[in-house]
Amino acid sequence: MDRIDYQILSTLHDNARITISEMSRMIAMSQPAVTERLRKLEEQGVITGYRAEISPSKLGKHTTAFVLFKSNNCKEFEVFGEATPEIVDLYRTGGEYNYLLKVVTETSETLETFLETCNNFGFSSTLVVLSTRFEDKSLVGSTE
Amino acid sequence: MDRIDYQILSTLHDNARITISEMSRMIAMSQPAVTERLRKLEEQGVITGYRAEISPSKLGKHTTAFVLFKSNNCKEFEVFGEATPEIVDLYRTGGEYNYLLKVVTETSETLETFLETCNNFGFSSTLVVLSTRFEDKSLVGSTE
DNA sequence: CCTGAAAATATATCGCC
DNA sequence: GGCGATATATTTTCAGG
């Protein structure tokens, strides 16, 4: 993992659909060499995937919240988490609560319905997101 | 936005680097038609970007935490948030705290240093992530 | 590990329905 | 909106340093 690998990671973090040819021009290296480096970064698990970012509001999902959760039946709760489309992220945490969920719903009413379902599994505390300042800041600094 | 648009979104959410030709085969539509639909989805802001997912641990970042924050100088705090590479996500929230941060650091020691810096801006409460069950579940159901 | 060249794919841009 | 055809660009593959 040298500086060129970091440049590749940084570039793909900004735009995962860039062509390898264009990247190879940006970083002044032949296109087959970039292809091979990229293949290795994927193989080693440094890059775990590529995803399109989709605007929740354009899909009618206008409410985002984080829910702290305390469950005493973790297996059951995780099955529920997997099966529930509103739960976008699911983290196991230390401290008073044992789960943190990111939840995306259509309106605050839909969020309320979701939270009522949650009450079947334990105790929760909700933080409503008013706005997102930024998300997914790059882990690789521009000069690494 | 019909069923085909949802198929395009779902496919790109799973793999943002798929070729349009391959997508056009999967959804049985001509390549120029898929290209045109994709162009419109980007133009309308339904798709806001494409990013590579990078494994924090492969970059030596082994600690993730969420930090609840109460600041009484929001402008100052947001400038700090932008400038601080450890802060990966920054949300404005309602309730007792006014910010929620996702923080990624190398070790728990680096997290501690970060939290000490934070104390200059207000009061915080930290939830350490033990493990991530899943992240970025698709907002578009497979049959929409 | 990288380059350069050639063959196989993919994309952009037509005119047409 | 979508299709087919074609010109341009990109990716894959591989011999050679």
Spatial separation of the terminal alpha carbons of chain A:
10 Å
Number of H/I helices of chain A: 5
Output the CATH topology of the largest domain in chain A.
Alpha-Beta Plaits
- Report strand order across the widest sheet of chain A: 3-4-2-5
Query: Would you tell me the structural class of the helices and strands of chain A?
Result: alpha+beta
- How many domain modules of chain A? 2
Tell me what the CATH architecture of the largest domain in chain A is.
2-Layer Sandwich
For CATH, the homologous superfamily of the largest domain in chain A is named as Lrp/AsnC effector binding domain/regulation of amino acid metabolism (RAM) domain
Encode the helix/strand succession of chain A as letters: HHHEEHEEHE
Greatest interface (CB-CB under 8 A), with counts per chain: A-B, 57 and 57 residues
Q: What kind of sheet is the major sheet of chain A?
A: 4 strands, antiparallel
* Strand element count of chain A: 5
Mean pLDDT across all amino acids of chain A: 95
The CATH class assignment of the largest domain in chain A is: Alpha Beta
